[in-house]
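sorry to bug you again but im stuck and you know this stuff better than me. what follows is a protein written twice so to speak, once as letters and once as structure tokens for the fold. mainly i need to know what kind of three dimensional shape the backbone takes. anything you notice is useful, everything is just below:
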Amino acid sequence: MLDLSRVRAYCCCDSMVDCEVRRMQEELLIQKIRRLPPEKAAEVEDFVDFLSRRNYDQRLVETAARISEGAFQKAWDNPEDAEYDRL
């Protein structure tokens, strides 16, 4: 039987049950990938890389927006722009 106490340390799930479900999903995905011809497995790898980059890029944009918010506060908070705030 799987010792979930050690798995939990490396899992991003909210509960042990979720962690076990995720592990089973990962195993099924790995089995499917293993059945693919090499060129299709390479496409899967490219797609996973694309998803990782997209996720990273999105977090980068969100972080940059949060960091720059304070710098733009003076430009955004002025009487001349108050008319636009009411739109």
The chain has two domains: 1-35, 37-76.
